[in-house]
């Protein structure tokens, strides 16, 4: 038997004021996207914003449905919109944030497993990494340089060919 270990580095910022102008601006778009989330059941509103290689910003937010599996997370809404409208343009970064109706989120919000898989596969199809900026309603901000850091053992297409 052999024991292996995964690890990754991430940046931690105390506030948006410490971020670069471009990261702060993208997080501002994600904060705006939170306001249009449709979350009448969980009351957990998530916003995401992508910065594309052509400079465009794509926003997404969670869209719930009474038939729970029919809803969609903010990250996938944004990624699928970008892929369907700008299929040949790389995604440079994503900013994610959330707010809750009944409590304050003071830790960075991270993507769920399904979103990590979609984001990772997108990253493997394009020439560069996708920077991930994560924030709650208040508190620290985490930044990772690549989606691959968040899902090191992603399911890959090669698994279907065996």
What would CATH call the homologous superfamily?
Cytidine Deaminase, domain 2
- What is the tally of helical segments? 3
| Low-pLDDT stretches | none
Instruction: Please state the overall shape, judged from the principal axes of the Cα atoms.
Output: globular
CATH topology: Cytidine Deaminase, domain 2
Question: How helix-rich are the residues, as a percent range?
Answer: 10-25%
Annotation, overall tally of beta strands: 6
Order of helices and strands: EHEEHEHEE
Termini separation (Å)? Answer: 24 Å
Number of domains: 1
CATH top level class name: Alpha Beta
Radius of gyration: 16 Å
Largest sheet: 6 strands, mixed
Strand order of the largest sheet: 1-6-5-4-2-3
Name the beta content range. Answer: 15-25%
Structural class: alpha+beta
Mean pLDDT: 95
**CATH architecture designation:** 3-Layer(aba) Sandwich
What does this molecule look like?
By secondary structure, the protein is α+β, with helices and mostly antiparallel strands. It has a single domain (19-160), classed as Cytidine Deaminase, domain 2 (3-Layer(aba) Sandwich), CATH 3.40.140.10. Helix content is 24%, strand content 22%. It has a six-stranded mixed beta sheet. The relative contact order is 0.19. The mean pLDDT is 95.
Please name the defining characteristics of this protein:
162 residues, alpha+beta, Cytidine Deaminase, domain 2, 6-stranded mixed beta sheet, 3 helices, 24% helix, globular
Topology:
Blueprint: E1 11-13, H1 21-34, E2 44-52, E3 57-61, H2 74-85, E4 91-100, H3 113-125, E5 131-135, E6 141-144
Parallel strand pairs: 4-5
Antiparallel strand pairs: 1-6, 2-3, 2-4, 5-6
């Amino acid at each position: 038997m052999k024991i292996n270990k995964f690890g990754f580095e991430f940046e931690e910022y105390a506030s948006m004021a410490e971020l670069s102008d471009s990261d702060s601006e993208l997080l501002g778009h994600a904060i705006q996207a939170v306001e249009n989330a449709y979350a009448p059941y969980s009351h957990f509103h998530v916003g995401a914003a992508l910065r594309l290689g052509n400079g465009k910003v794509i926003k997404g937010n969670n869209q719930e449905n009474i038939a729970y599996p029919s809803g969609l997370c903010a990250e996938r809404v944004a990624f699928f919109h970008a892929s369907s409208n700008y299929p040949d343009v790389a995604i440079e970064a994503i900013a994610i944030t959330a707010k809750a109706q009944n409590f304050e989120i003071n830790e960075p919000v991270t993507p769920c497993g399904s979103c990590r898989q979609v984001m990772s596969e997108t990253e493997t199809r394009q020439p560069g990494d996708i920077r991930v900026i994560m924030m709650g309603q208040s508190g620290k901000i985490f930044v990772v340089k690549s989606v691959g850091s968040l899902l090191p053992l992603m399911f890959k297409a090669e698994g279907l060919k065996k």
